[in-house]
Specification:
Layout (H helix, E strand, L loop, with lengths): L6 E5 L5 H12 L2 E7 L11 E4 L5 H15 L4 E4 L4 E2 L8 H11 L1 H17 L2 E6 L12 H21 L4 E8 L6 H4 E2 L9 H16 L4 H13 L6 E4 L1 H12 L2 H11 L5
Parallel strand pairs: 1-2, 1-4, 2-3, 4-6, 5-8, 6-7, 7-9
Family: Belongs to the short-chain dehydrogenases/reductases (SDR) family.
Protein name: Short-chain dehydrogenase/reductase
Pfam families: adh_short (PF00106)
């Protein structure tokens, strides 16, 4: 397809932040873009069609895919961006809360992917981009459950890519670093806070606010998604931003003991 007619893209969690920036970047690049949000939203002024989709519901995920097919006839690109955060000590969350985070961040991706794969298989082609994180590569104190979802996405995506590659479908990961989005928007607090973590939890939240303020713009991630979407022979992973690339290098090539000490220092934890 020409640059002015790339194909049909579906982006989850496109109401704000990385999802909105990604939808806009794809639209500028020539895609016809459908975005999803949990609540009804008007279509954007730059031509993004907004659909209601709750990725924690099988029927809602399938309905969004069916709506795109009804309007556009095909889906060439799925960007799984919808996600939630959780900050606090791992034991401060009940299993119910942990399941809720996984339901959005992991099973939401699985639901959307399962709904789209038959479509792409019939088309004999398609691409699915899953938004991971550098926290899918490294330990993340006081973000253990969130980081666990990103580690799960890494393993799921890489494995699935091998399964569907012969069907003309590719699964690609985009790994953002810290991004300047609304801290309050998607972060969740523990549902059973423990006094032993009060001080370190507050410190972790302060640190997160500070690094988010200095983080990459959402457009940096969006640019990585566009590269991943359009590559003829896509890489398995695309880091988004300088910090993300540095973290990936550290994790892959430096001794584990060095990474451990560096991570504790960065998080203000005693050696």
């Amino acid at each position: 397809m020409s640059k002015t007619e790339r194909g049909i893209a579906l982006v989850t969690g496109a109401s704000s932040g990385i999802g909105l920036a990604t939808a806009q970047a794809l639209r500028r690049d020539g895609y016809r873009v459908f975005g999803t949000s949990r609540k009804p939203m008007p279509d954007t002024s730059d031509g993004i069609t907004m659909l209601v989709c709750d990725v924690t519901k099988d029927a809602s995920a399938q309905s969004a895919v069916d709506e795109v097919l009804g309007r556009a006839g095909r889906i060439d690109l799925l960007v799984n961006n919808a996600g939630v955060g959780l900050l606090g000590g791992a034991e401060e969350s009940t299993t119910a809360q942990a399941k809720a985070v996984f339901d959005v961040n992991v099973f939401g991706i699985i639901r959307m992917t399962n709904a789209v794969l038959p479509v792409m298989r019939r088309q004999r082609g398609g691409r699915i981009i899953n938004l991971s994180s550098i926290l899918g590569l490294i330990p993340a104190p006081y973000n253990a459950l969130y980081a666990s979802t990103k580690h799960a996405i890494e393993g799921y995506s890489e494995s699935l890519d091998h399964e569907v590659r012969t069907q003309g479908i590719r699964i690609v990961l985009v790994e953002p670093g810290v991004t300047r989005t609304s801290f309050e928007e998607n972060i969740t607090r523990p549902d059973r806070p423990l006094a032993v973590y009060d001080t370190v939890r507050a410190d972790a939240e302060k640190l997160m606010r500070e690094i988010v303020a200095k983080g990459d713009a959402p457009e940096v991630v969006a640019e990585a998604v566009v590269r991943a979407a359009n590559a003829t022979s896509p890489k398995r992973r695309y880091t988004a931003g300088k910090a993300a690339g540095q973290v990936r290098f550290l994790r892959r090539f430096l001794p584990e003991s060095f990474v451990d000490k560096s991570l504790r220092k960065f998080n203000g934890l005693p050696a």
